[in-house]
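Sync notes, pocket subgroup
Present: LS, DG
LS reminded everyone that the earlier model was apo-only. Rerun requested with magnesium ion included. Inputs:
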Amino acid sequence: MGLLRKLRFYLDSAMVVQLLIPVVFFGLFLIVPLAAVAVFPLVPGISGTTYSPLLLFQDPSMIRFTSTRPSVIIRQVVMGGENLTLIAVFGPNYGAIPNSLINSVVVTLGASIFGLVIAFVMARYDFPGKMFFRVLAMVPLLLTPFINAFVVRKMFMYDGIISYFIHRILHLSYIIYVDYLAGVMIAQVMTFWPIVYLNVYASMVQIDPSLEEQAENLGAKGFRLFRTVTLPLSLPGLAAGAAVVFIFSLEDLGAPIAFREFDMISFKIFSGLRAAITGEVPPYVASLSLLLLALAMVAFLAIKKYVSLRQYAMVVRGGRWFPRVRKPGVIGAVLIYALILPAMLFTAFPQIGVFMYSLAERWTKTFPEGLTLRYFSEMVSNPVLFTSIKNSLIYAGSALAIIVLLGISTAYVVARGRIPGLGILDVIATSPIAIPGLAIATGYFLVFSRAPFKGTLLDPFTSGPWLLLILAYAIRRSPFTIRAVYAGLQQIHEALEESAMNLGASRWRTLATIVIPLLGLSILGGALVSFVYSMAETSVSVTLGGIESSQRPITYSMYEYLYSGYVEGPNLVAVMAVFIISIQLTVIVVTNFILKQRYAFIGV
Amino acid sequence: MVKVVLKDVTKKFGRVVAVNKVSLEVEGGELFTILGPSGCGKTTTLRIVAGFEFPDEGRVMFDDVDVTFRKPYERGTAMVFQNYALWPHMTVFDNIAYGLKVKKLPKSEVRERVMGVIELVGLKGLEDRYPLQLSGGQQQRVALARALVVEPKVLLLDEPLSNLDAKLRVKMREEIRRLQKRLGITTIYVTHDQEEAMSLSDRIAIMNDGKVVQVGHPREIYMSPGNLFVATFIGRSTALMGRVVEVSGENVKLDVGDGVVIKGRLARGYELRTNDEAIAIMRPEDFDLDKPKAEANELSGIVDLTMFIGAFNQVKIRLSNQSFKAYLDPDIEVRSGTEMTVYIRVDDVIIFPRRGWEEIEFEAVA
Ligand SMILES: Nc1ncnc2c1ncn2[C@@H]1O[C@H](COP(=O)(O)OP(=O)(O)OP(=O)(O)O)[C@@H](O)[C@H]1O
Ligand SMILES: [Mg+2]
């Protein structure tokens, strides 16, 4: 009775439509596919197979108790007439499930420690060149799908620059070679640590300086101050960053492919889905996707206590007051310039390497060689690449249209609707940040290739994957826009809308004449970020995207050119990465300097 | 002229009962004020009338039409928000014209009426400015003009003057009163400033804690407060506690300690018996140094504290174990520690049962 009374009052046509848009969209293209991922393996018979998720644990490629390879091999080799000690680091292989878990835990720890240290230094110290450090910390987040891990592997080959540094510069008679799981770990820490850094930094600059001053006043200083005050207060940022790293690390494909670590959950799903391009989804894929989804959700829920989803997409928020910064002492300065700077340069190297690669004639030995712009013109003239770039622009652009609609509706309903239960919609709408793209891809395969969708535009086998790609991009990248619009709405006093309605304007009219004009910049800022990350989406693109060759998106082509053995492939992929980065940089400049908003840096 | 009726309206926010069974009748053309301390539910009541909030229980009627379920944009009310809520992306002209454009009036008429109201509120020449380029007082007038121009059935004002300085507040107050009478619009005015309420209103509803505790003309509310809350909230007041020694009809005698007896009148609607605990509420400005002609109490005590306020001298006089406040002629010098005698007419002393006193914490009583 009370509820009905309420609904009758609060639901007008505009509200109903605004509510239906996200409910229908997220329901059909997020909840239903994920439900399929959950239901297919658990309810035998639906899929026509009798595969049970428990079978995963009987498959030695999924889990086994002895490693199939030594973690480290040390061997004497002769190279260029010199006797050298080769240290080959591979990491163990206990099958896909333990491998993925070990990897994600190690990567999360590594990225957390590194991110925490850098965040502390950046938030609390002022030193010459700090601006450069700040920019450097962002470099690993530049979007270089597949190619950055490829470059990391080059660095860690026995003739890579790491070995070169040890052998030729330090004159030690060692060379190093990293591959498989160990390589995946290194590549992922190098890429993901800034996520922790950004979150922790945001937490730290928001700590009221007086809290630390009070503690100092009471005699705490140095590490004690950090441990007792600064760290606990930064914990929400740390928890958020660590959880995101954990999830991204689980679903990452670039590093496992580059380092040939094929026994990983993400790779198994990926290869299973690619096999499905020619037919049915192999039975274990849904089970594995369910496991991936469950792990991501656990990580996500575990930190919910600390951070609400809301903070996620706009992880970086500015501090209002001037945080406490001081000059480092002598030891501090030495550490900053002699240890931290080289470490940051090291993690930025893959992106720097991609730039060099795009301009190099070849990179077959230690360093790139020969300067050329040839590959840029080749990218444009190569019909396959050109088509995939064009496709991606169309897909991302179309996804953008959906995202804007979805962003406005969802944010508006959540911010302004007075209907109970809207909190759930809020959680659902922001959850794609934590939902592995591979689980979505699996869900799309399971749902849209059979009745009642068989033969429709949604069916990837009859119509090609273009529509599903657009929808997947829209779902996966909508949180950026939704959060931006939501933040914008919170800046608009509700009375501005109420006074319009009070003067006789319907909710539709109020939306059109008051809300949207006032939200313009927020919508634009969020949409630009969504667009960039749609262009760089990989999980769905390299699985569903491969079904119809004329509809392939750019990231699919990047994967293919990198690993199909085509000699000039990597050069062309580097050029494509530079193309994506240039779009990303444009967006960063526009959002930060023209729209004066914070660019949301997370999205991988 | 529309009559606005609220019938047993209740609105809860979670556990907070913001509005509790409120019933009001606002006559057509009347300027009706809702007055009460912060957080008592004034804004919520107004928003229910405007249709921004939906009551959990009860009904809202305009004349005899039930509008409880009507959307805000179907009610024909016009509200002036506390923060004005001017649209920053529209000029003064566009802000004011908005309601008329919504009604799809012809352009020429929109222009004519907007210019008319701009003239009326004294904003001529500012029509192309944006709200951020206006002073607080000008913004307030734009908000008022925007509400008036649509010729609303009901005008709703939520503390429209609270952001202005004291002088401007008085000036705008008079202007609102004048405009309202001239246009004859039923108006509900919300404020927590009792001077504003007194000077402006045809009638006042006093709210406390979500409930309407008294409705009446300003004079009536001031002269015969219906309960302790109103007695202490309206005007300044001072109190003496005691025990009833005699009740005869309206007249009550109260022993306030050490045999000092105060005579006063029983508050309307209450009952007292001998030996009941009671409280005498008096207004400090009603005390006199000379014995008045009418029947009066004579109170003698030691001056505890004097404070020169300007228009009067505030004196705190101690009886045996409690004290009261009196405002005296500033020309007469009073020294702390001296004994002094003051008079107050029996009619100016209102006696309430003491029950409920502890819940009223109001600094005016001390
Ligand atoms: N949207 C809301 N959600 C939760 N509680 C609310 C909401 N609006 C008002 N309240 C609560 O309801 C009570 C009445 O609020 P209301 O705004 O009506 O008071 P008010 O009399 O206008 O006060 P003031 O003079 O301070 O403006 C308060 O306790 C307030 O905290
Ligand atoms: Mg209020």
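DG: The longest helix of chain B spans residues 166-183.
LS: Confidence is low (pLDDT under 50) at residues 361-366 of chain B.
Action: DG to write up.
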